Structure prediction request, 210 residues.
Amino acid sequence: METLECIKSRRSVRKFLDIPVEAEKLSNILEAAQNAPCAGNLQEWKFILVTDKPARQKVAEACLEQYWISSAPLVIIACSDPSKPKKFYDEAGERFAIMDASAAVENMLLAVHDQGLASCWVSGFEEEMLRREFNIPDSVFIIAVLPIGYPDEKVPVPPKLTLENITFISSYGNRVKDIAAYMEWYGEHVQKVIKKGKELVKKFVKKLGE
Ligand SMILES: Cc1cc2nc3c(=O)[nH]c(=O)nc-3n(C[C@H](O)[C@H](O)[C@H](O)COP(=O)(O)O)c2cc1C
Prediction:
């Protein structure tokens, strides 16, 4: 699947077929996480793989009784230990730990979708319950629970904010009124820059020949 197509067509799925996830696909999902960007390449992310049914049911309970979660044959609990990032970056280390693991989670969601599987980022959970059931230390952040499996539902695109709503030009709050008009202007601007660059190269080559 093309990368952009994968990003745009990924949806949160909450109903799964009773078919296990192949080992090769799971490896690809973990490798996608492994290759996420991260602050200082510290790679402070950890993943708990949960496959047996009673444990998946415990996850569902801990996730505020979202019982659909246990229908997924595989659940990954994504965690991040901020202790190393904090040593390198002081206070910012905590934020970086969350950001790193979040980037890894998005990579995983895309690898899931790219391989014909489906998932849903779940962060509605009772932390203490997850810690207790899966031995997660108090010092470690729980970033997301990812139920993964073959989809048993087709999910429509949920309402999305417009690009005009989420895009500012040069300064926070400076909205684009018409994104299509802006893109037209931007395209022309890029063409001008390219033309100028080509002219400079031509001049340079001509000078070299003199
Ligand atoms: C931080 C975060 C927490 C979320 N928690 C839950 C959750 O607890 N339960 C759930 O069903 N979906 C959860 N979602 C999924 C969102 O509801 C979903 O991504 C959003 O509605 C957009 O839909 P889409 O993923 O299909 O584009 C969460 C997503 C994020 C990023």
About this structure: The longest strand covers residues 141-149. The two ends are 51 Å apart (CA to CA). The chain has two domains: 3-149, 165-209.
